[in-house]
Amino acid sequence: MKLDPSLLQNLPPFERLNAADRQEVLDLARIRRVLPGKSVFEEGMDATHFHLLLDGHIRVERLNPEGEKVISLHIPPGQLFGIARALGRDIYPATALAVTECLILVWPTALWETFVERYDGFSTEAYKVVGNRVSEMNNRIMELATQHVEQRVARAILRLMQQHGRDSEIGTQIAFPVTRKVISEMTGSTLHTVSRLLSRWERQRIVQSQHRHIFVLDEGRLEKLTH
User: Please, what is the angle between helix 149-164 and helix 180-187, to 10°?
Assistant: First the structure.
């Protein structure tokens, strides 16, 4: 499939490139469609490729030492992921799962150094992504250590809204399905506690759940719950 180089024009890793270089980048890629619930790669697999999410949403999951699933973060369209080489790793440190149907560009990891050396701005953006994700994970660790469950759950929903929200007639909708179980895995909480909190917040018209989607109705009041 011949892809139009304008596809990469406004994506940070490649926005400094001219049309010829963008076409070269696309010619080196293969395009992959991943259905919801399917993994792009799994924790512990050899990091044979790196990826750029064109459309859809990716959930990053890990297993803790007790074998329990921990949701690390969600990746929006336009970002690199599976960039183990940027971390000095030869294996993927986590599982990448398609939350919605995803369209992904895939390159062999063997091309990583070529991209870093040849394409202006690629390495800057790649390592900025790494820095942002490390910072987010550090913040999450601090939240687990210092905040009450209600604060953690409110902050998790607020973060999802800010990173993946879109306007709707009801309120700000998180752009992909989010179950109460997912929130419990994001916040180190029990499913019962998350259900109790969300039910209360729905009665208070702070959030609303509908067909596995969460809508934030009152961002200000949700923000207050994080303090």
Answer: 110
